[in-house]
Specification:
Chain B: One of its GO terms (molecular function) is protein-transporting ATPase activity. The complex is a heterodimer of chains A (about 325) and B (about 525). Chain A is of the alpha+beta class and about 325 residues long. Chain A contains 9 helices and 6 strands. Chain B is about 50% helix and about 20% strand. In chain B, α11 (about 365-395) runs antiparallel to α12, α13 (about 425-455) runs parallel beside α15 (about 495-530) and α14 packs antiparallel against α15 (about 495-530). The chains are: A alpha+beta (about 325), B alpha+beta (about 525). The interface between A and B is large, with 87 and 84 residues.
């Protein structure tokens, strides 16, 4: 039977040769992300900005402009209406008034006004309302989570490998996180708590990828004590390339199924993860490994630590 | 790596069987579950609010108002104490976070200080003073101006008891709605988290929780009318203007003195008035309440009596005759639901302080059902695609990996059912993602085997080496994955937490299945077939 092979056997691309271009590209992407972040900002969802979202389903196709006129007169402040998935699905977003007090109940008042106006002619599919106090805390804990996750990864890699590997892995992670935030700023997709969940998943996935490459580098460092580091890294990446591509492929297959069939609610969540798989795969090859060349690694690896480097035969 | 001891095989088989057994209840109808023998697992996966529909509310107890109420009460106590001590004073009132009072005669100051100090009680709070008892009031004097403040310990103790009490009352009110499995938890210092699944109308829930429901009965001041008093700015001493619930523009002059309070109620039930047929709430007092109510109604026949809820007058009927039995009824042009809700509120008791809604997430049953459908379809399509892909890439070994994947899915669902973890929509995404990454362990192993084959090893040696060498890599890679899931769990609430749980379970089960189920299948195949040649 003919096997599907995404990567031919015994590849020998020179990834290291492209590292200057890759580093340039990565730095450019990161800079662009920062610029975008400050120039356009993120389209924060109510989790981080406070406010109210009401998803309604109308009978028959929704008349957005009609709804806008109906709700516009309520004095709700910043009001946005948009179609959400199906033709009869409408998302109503109401911002919080700036300078609202921590225990402000304006969100609840807004929900009541909308419900009083639209009555029972529509189905209320979802109501979310986050006060300014809670949203402030959510921003803090979300930022903390990403920082803590990255720090823990560094410590783990440092513990299992060497600090140079830890640094390479962390730089790759920072690259992935920044690029993902950048694409959210660029496309102005809603950035909310589930996006943070996606970011942390990307951190986990990208790390997973990086570790596989690093593991092979360490193994080869033991095997070929005299080989040039660039060559050795190229060899290691090539050896693990089939696995890298295969795993990315299966993960992407699953994620695309979610993106297409999983419904509107988690679309931005799955989008973030799909994007993250691409950058995560790229970064373990083109960011994490070149960092090792730049800062150098220890060449004196003892063999046999944890049974690696030689095959033990068990009867 | 290809040799398995008997007990290991038994253990793997047992765990796999357990996975399927614990997963099974999720696919059986309720009736079939009830008929199953009791030794079999019955638990179904707990669906999150975003899938089954329901409301998530984060409420904050207004502790500032608790303090304010206490200060207000202190003013009354001080007034009484100074009257008993026969002291002349001016300007008694709440001033910011303190009660201030000016003693008219300097020789009375010491006597007043003593009288006020006697009002203080001993409180303990483990949080601040390390359990040491402390007086709740601090009293300071500067030239006849006495300032009384609440100590920090007293405030904390009061806030804490207000939260405990609020939780109890919130629980009672929600229980009255007859929903299944509401979750009510304290969160942080002054917050209450409420999760009520499967509620059609969260508005009603919020309305029930949004009222403090302080009920009291007071006499109407008939010396003048409210309109007149407001027009001439001469509100009689001991009276205040309140508005009617029904018509918020209609004022009524009501005496401040509470004749009977809602805390004397023992029961309240909705019903219909026998003559007019309109919805009413009938109530019953405890013995103290009944006695007080009897006295008031006996002494005030022919006068209007205001029934006040949260400083709004529900109604002010005229007392026709003394009511001595301790029961009565409240009418106020209610709808049936209003009467129902009022009865619930009265039965459950008053909240010690208002609750503010800080965060609300409500998902209607329609969206929940849609999400389940979408999640299921995505999972099935995702799994099938991954299964086909694995077979295309690895042939027979792909089939082996898929068998392991099947066990993996059963283990995840079994673990979720057994642990009664909550499955949310992002949680389903976590499972689908796990299906994608679960094969990673197998891919690592198979790719390693391919490499070893290419380097000229025999089939068995290559398979041995593949499993052996991939192990450390797989562990390292998955531990990092697990770390990020753990961080996510710590950060997240609700749906996000559900995602973290499935992700973490998925990481553990996929490592397990790759190294047990898949390896066992491959080992069995190798032993039976003794392959000389392996095309992988």
């Amino acid at each position: 039977m003919k096997r599907l092979k995404l990567v031919p056997d015994n590849t020998s691309f020179s990834f290291v040769k492209f590292r200057h271009i890759a580093v340039g590209l990565s730095v450019a992407v990161m800079l662009a992300s920062v610029v975008l972040l400050f120039a356009r900002g993120l389209n924060f969802g109510i989790d981080f900005e406070g406010g109210t979202v009401i998803e309604i389903a109308t009978k028959g196709p929704a008349d957005i402009s009609g709804l806008r006129t109906q709700l516009g007169g309520l004095g709700l402040g910043d009001l946005q209406l948009q179609r959400f998935g199906e033709d009869n699905d409408v998302l109503i977003r109401i911002g919080t008034a700036h300078g609202a007090s921590a225990t402000d109940d304006t969100g609840q008042a807004a929900v009541k006004k909308v419900k009083d106006t639209l009555g029972t002619s529509v189905e209320y599919r979802r109501i979310e309302s986050v006060g300014p106090q809670v949203s402030g805390e959510l921003i803090k804990s979300a930022t903390m989570a990403v920082v803590v996750a990255v720090a823990l990864m560094f410590v783990y890699i440092w513990f299992r490998f060497e600090w140079q590997f830890g640094l390479g892995a962390v730089l790759a992670l920072i690259h992935d996180v920044m690029a993902t935030i950048g694409i959210f700023a660029l496309l102005q997709m809603e950035f909310n708590l589930t996006t943070i969940a996606a970011l942390l998943t990307i951190v986990g996935y990208s790390m997973n990828d990086t570790v596989v490459v690093f593991d092979r580098i360490r193994e080869n460092l033991r095997k070929f004590k005299k080989m040039d580091l660039g060559e050795l890294i190229d060899l290691s990446i090539n050896e693990t390339l089939a696995r890298t591509i295969m795993t990315s492929a299966t993960t992407l297959i699953a994620l695309f199924a979610l993106f297409i069939f999983g419904g509107e609610v988690i679309r931005s969540f799955t989008f973030a993860m799909i994007f993250g798989i691409f950058v995560g795969t790229y970064s373990s090859i083109f960011v994490a490994a070149p960092v090792l060349i730049a800062i150098g690694v220890k060449r004196e690896w003892g063999s046999g630590a944890l049974g690696r480097g030689k095959v033990e035969k068990k009867a | 790596m290809l040799h398995f001891e008997r007990w290991k095989i038994a253990l793997i088989a047992l765990l796999t069987l357990a996975g399927f057994l614990y997963t099974a209840p999720n696919f059986l109808p309720k009736a079939a579950l009830d008929e199953m023998p009791s030794f079999l697992p019955h638990k179904q996966i707990n669906l999150g609010l975003d899938l089954r529909g329901g409301s998530y509310l984060l409420l904050q107890v207004d502790t500032a108002s608790v303090t304010h109420d206490r200060l207000q009460q202190l003013v009354n106590d001080i007034r009484k104490a100074l009257r008993n001590a026969e002291v002349l004073y001016t300007g008694l009132g709440v001033n910011g976070e303190a009660v201030t009072i000016r003693i008219t005669k300097p020789e009375d100051v010491d006597k007043s200080l003593k009288a006020i100090r006697d009002l203080s009680t001993v409180v303990t709070s483990n949080l601040l003073s390390g359990g040491l008892p402390q007086r709740d009031l601090s009293v300071a004097n500067s030239g006849g101006l006495i300032t009384v403040t609440l100590s920090e310990t007293a405030k904390v103790a009061r806030a804490q008891s207000a939260i405990q009490q609020s939780m109890e009352i919130v629980r009672r009110r929600i229980d009255e709605l007859g929903t299944t499995e509401p979750v009510i938890q304290q969160q942080g210092a002054d917050r209450i988290l409420v999760q009520v699944p499967g509620l059609g109308d969260p508005q009603r829930l919020k309305k029930l929780l949004g009222q403090t429901a302080k009920l009291n009965f007071r006499l109407v001041d008939t010396s003048t009318t409210a309109q007149q008093a407001m027009a001439t700015h001469t509100i009689p001493a001991g009276a205040e203007v309140l508005y009617m619930t029904e018509d918020p523009t209609r004022p009524l002059l009501v005496q401040r003195r509470v004749m009977v309070g809602g805390d004397n109620l023992v029961d309240a039930t909705p019903g219909f008035d026998q003559r007019s047929g309109e919805p009413i709430v009938s109530f019953r007092f405890d013995s103290t309440g009944a006695r007080l109510f009897g006295e008031v109604t006996r002494d005030n026949v022919g006068k209007p009596f205001a029934i006040v809820l949260d400083n709004k007058v529900i109604s002010a009927p005229v007392i026709r005759e003394p009511i001595l039995g301790g029961t009565g009824q409240i009418s106020g042009n209610f709808t049936v639901q209003q009467a129902n809700d009022l009865a619930i509120l009265l039965r459950a008791g008053a909240l010690p302080a208002p609750l503010n809604v800080l965060e609300e997430r409500t998902v209607g049953p329609g969206l929940g059902a849609d999400s389940i459908r979408a999640g299921t379809i995505a999972s099935i399509i995702g799994s099938v695609a991954v299964i086909v892909f694995m077979i295309a890439a690895y042939g027979l070994f792909g089939v082996f990996a898929n068998l392991a994947l099947l066990v993996n899915i059963a283990l995840i669902m079994g673990a979720l059912s057994m642990l009664q973890a909550t499955l949310t929509l992002p949680g389903i995404a976590g499972i689908v993602l796990t299906i994608g990454t679960a094969v990673d362990a197998n891919v690592l192993i198979y790719e390693r085997i391919r490499e070893e084959l290419r380097s000229g090893k025999s089939v068995i040696a290559a398979i041995e080496a593949g499993y052996h060498r991939a192990l450390a890599t797989i562990l390292d890679a998955n531990i990092t994955h697990f770390i990020s899931a753990a961080v996510l769990f710590e950060l997240g609430s609700g749906p996000v937490r559900g995602f973290a749980v499935t992700l973490a379970i998925g990481v553990v089960t996929s490592v397990f299945t790759a190294f047990t189920v898949n390896r066992l299948i491959v080992a069995t195949w190798v032993r039976r077939r003794r392959p000389k040649l392996l095309v992988l």
